[in-house]
Amino acid sequence: QVQLVESGGGLVQAGGSLRLSCAASGSIFSINAMGWYRQAPGKQRELVARITSAGSTNYADSVKGRFTISRDNAKNTVYLQMNSLKPEDTAVYYCNALIRGRLVTRENDYWGQGTQVTVSS
After folding, report:
1. Residue-wise pLDDT tens digits, 36-68
2. CB under 8 Å, gap of 24 or more: what pairs does 64-70 form?
3. Distance between CA 79 and CA 76 in Å, rounded?
4. Rounded distance between C-alpha atoms, residue 87 and residue 49, angstroms
5. Which three-class secondary structure string do you get for 98-116?
6. Angle value at C-alpha 95, between 83 and 44, nearest 5 degrees
7. Is the pLDDT assigned to residue 105 strictly greater than 90?
8. Fewest C-beta in 10 Å: which of 37, 47, 60, 120?
Protein backbone atom coordinates (compact mmCIF):
# COMPACT_ATOMS: atom_id res chain seq x y z
CA GLN A 1 0.00 0.00 0.00
CA VAL A 2 1.12 3.51 -0.82
CA GLN A 3 -0.07 6.62 0.99
CA LEU A 4 0.38 10.34 0.50
CA VAL A 5 0.01 12.44 3.64
CA GLU A 6 -0.19 16.23 3.38
CA SER A 7 0.43 18.84 6.04
CA GLY A 8 0.87 22.57 6.34
CA GLY A 9 -2.47 24.04 5.36
CA GLY A 10 -4.26 26.67 7.40
CA LEU A 11 -5.58 30.20 7.60
CA VAL A 12 -3.40 33.13 6.56
CA GLN A 13 -3.91 36.77 5.71
CA ALA A 14 -3.48 38.05 2.19
CA GLY A 15 0.20 38.62 1.47
CA GLY A 16 1.27 35.91 3.86
CA SER A 17 3.02 32.59 3.28
CA LEU A 18 2.40 28.92 3.86
CA ARG A 19 4.42 25.80 3.15
CA LEU A 20 2.71 22.55 2.25
CA SER A 21 4.39 19.18 2.58
CA CYS A 22 3.41 15.79 1.21
CA ALA A 23 5.19 12.59 2.18
CA ALA A 24 4.78 9.34 0.30
CA SER A 25 5.09 6.13 2.31
CA GLY A 26 4.54 2.42 1.90
CA SER A 27 5.87 -0.16 -0.49
CA ILE A 28 7.49 2.20 -3.01
CA PHE A 29 9.89 1.21 -5.78
CA SER A 30 10.15 4.59 -7.49
CA ILE A 31 8.40 7.95 -7.71
CA ASN A 32 8.06 9.75 -11.02
CA ALA A 33 6.38 13.15 -11.16
CA MET A 34 4.89 14.76 -8.06
CA GLY A 35 2.57 17.72 -7.97
CA TRP A 36 0.00 19.87 -6.27
CA TYR A 37 -3.55 20.48 -7.41
CA ARG A 38 -6.26 22.60 -5.86
CA GLN A 39 -10.02 22.76 -5.90
CA ALA A 40 -12.01 25.79 -4.84
CA PRO A 41 -15.74 25.54 -4.02
CA GLY A 42 -17.79 25.21 -7.18
CA LYS A 43 -14.72 24.89 -9.39
CA GLN A 44 -12.86 22.06 -11.06
CA ARG A 45 -9.63 20.71 -9.66
CA GLU A 46 -6.68 22.42 -11.33
CA LEU A 47 -2.95 21.87 -11.52
CA VAL A 48 -0.94 24.28 -9.38
CA ALA A 49 2.60 22.98 -9.84
CA ARG A 50 4.38 19.83 -10.88
CA ILE A 51 7.95 18.54 -10.58
CA THR A 52 9.53 15.58 -12.34
CA SER A 53 11.96 13.11 -10.79
CA ALA A 54 14.74 15.05 -12.53
CA GLY A 55 13.61 18.33 -11.00
CA SER A 56 11.92 19.99 -13.96
CA THR A 57 9.00 22.13 -12.90
CA ASN A 58 5.92 23.74 -14.35
CA TYR A 59 3.38 26.08 -12.78
CA ALA A 60 -0.08 27.41 -13.39
CA ASP A 61 0.11 30.96 -14.72
CA SER A 62 -1.83 32.21 -11.70
CA VAL A 63 0.91 31.16 -9.25
CA LYS A 64 4.10 31.80 -11.26
CA GLY A 65 6.52 33.94 -9.30
CA ARG A 66 4.68 33.36 -6.02
CA PHE A 67 4.76 29.57 -5.50
CA THR A 68 7.75 27.23 -5.58
CA ILE A 69 7.58 23.46 -5.78
CA SER A 70 10.49 21.30 -4.64
CA ARG A 71 11.12 17.72 -3.62
CA ASP A 72 13.41 15.68 -1.42
CA ASN A 73 13.83 12.33 -3.14
CA ALA A 74 15.55 10.80 -0.11
CA LYS A 75 12.44 11.53 1.96
CA ASN A 76 9.88 10.85 -0.80
CA THR A 77 8.49 14.29 -0.04
CA VAL A 78 7.27 17.17 -2.15
CA TYR A 79 6.85 20.73 -0.91
CA LEU A 80 4.93 23.78 -2.05
CA GLN A 81 6.16 27.13 -0.76
CA MET A 82 3.37 29.67 -1.23
CA ASN A 83 4.22 33.35 -0.90
CA SER A 84 2.22 36.52 -1.50
CA LEU A 85 -0.98 34.57 -1.00
CA LYS A 86 -4.22 36.01 -2.35
CA PRO A 87 -7.84 35.30 -1.38
CA GLU A 88 -8.29 33.58 -4.74
CA ASP A 89 -5.71 30.98 -3.65
CA THR A 90 -8.25 29.69 -1.14
CA ALA A 91 -8.94 26.02 -1.92
CA VAL A 92 -8.34 22.47 -0.84
CA TYR A 93 -4.86 21.53 -1.99
CA TYR A 94 -4.18 17.94 -3.04
CA CYS A 95 -0.85 16.20 -3.45
CA ASN A 96 -0.45 13.88 -6.42
CA ALA A 97 2.30 11.43 -7.33
CA LEU A 98 3.00 8.86 -10.01
CA ILE A 99 4.42 5.91 -8.10
CA ARG A 100 5.55 2.42 -8.91
CA GLY A 101 5.06 0.04 -6.03
CA ARG A 102 7.55 -2.69 -5.20
CA LEU A 103 5.24 -5.52 -6.21
CA VAL A 104 3.98 -4.10 -9.49
CA THR A 105 5.50 -3.33 -12.88
CA ARG A 106 3.59 -0.17 -13.76
CA GLU A 107 3.11 3.25 -12.22
CA ASN A 108 -0.12 4.33 -10.61
CA ASP A 109 -1.56 7.71 -9.75
CA TYR A 110 -1.93 8.45 -6.04
CA TRP A 111 -3.66 11.32 -4.27
CA GLY A 112 -3.45 12.75 -0.79
CA GLN A 113 -6.51 13.48 1.34
CA GLY A 114 -6.30 17.23 0.77
CA THR A 115 -5.43 20.13 3.04
CA GLN A 116 -7.42 23.36 3.35
CA VAL A 117 -5.74 26.67 2.57
CA THR A 118 -7.76 29.77 3.40
CA VAL A 119 -6.52 33.26 2.61
CA SER A 120 -8.40 36.12 4.22
CA SER A 121 -8.53 39.60 2.72
Report:
1. 999 999 999 999 999 999 999 999 999 999 999
2. 69/35, 69/36
3. 10
4. 18
5. EEEECCCCCEEEEECCCEE
6. 85
7. no
8. 120
